[in-house]
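Allow me, if you will, to draw on your knowledge of protein folds for a short while. The matter concerns a single protein, recorded as an amino acid sequence and a row of backbone structure tokens. Could you please explain, in whatever detail you think fit, how the structure tokens follow from the sequence? I remain grateful for any guidance, and I place the record below:

…
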Amino acid sequence: MNAPRPLFPNVRSAVRLIAACGAGALLSGCIGNPLVDAKVDPASPVAADVARLTRANRDYPSFRDIPKSPQDLRPVAAYGREADAIKLAGDKLVRETGPETWTLENTEAFAAKARRDSGPDIQPPQPGEAEAFARELRERATPPPPR
């Protein structure tokens, strides 16, 4: 079976070309300098400055005015080498501190040393002590004098 061929195979591309040319022609009307005949209001506070600056015959900057690049910078390749060194150091740190690199051993001795280093044991307060302390503070408190 043969697929049917279109009668005019280039019609689509021709329509696209015509549409693109038409859009270009329509947009070409937008090209221009609207500021060529722009007038400055003489009553404007900047009118004198605008007139002075537009009439000034000044030299425009050129490429020779661009300063030379500094010579005391390190080469660009050194930044990449430093970045690679930092990445390698990070990878090494991850390898050295991974979960498979350490184990919990001798935890009782560690806990006993921590208890010794923390000082004497302080007994927790009894429930009645806090209430007695609060009652004593209420009894000692004196209300402010009436106005």
The chain has a mean pLDDT of 84.
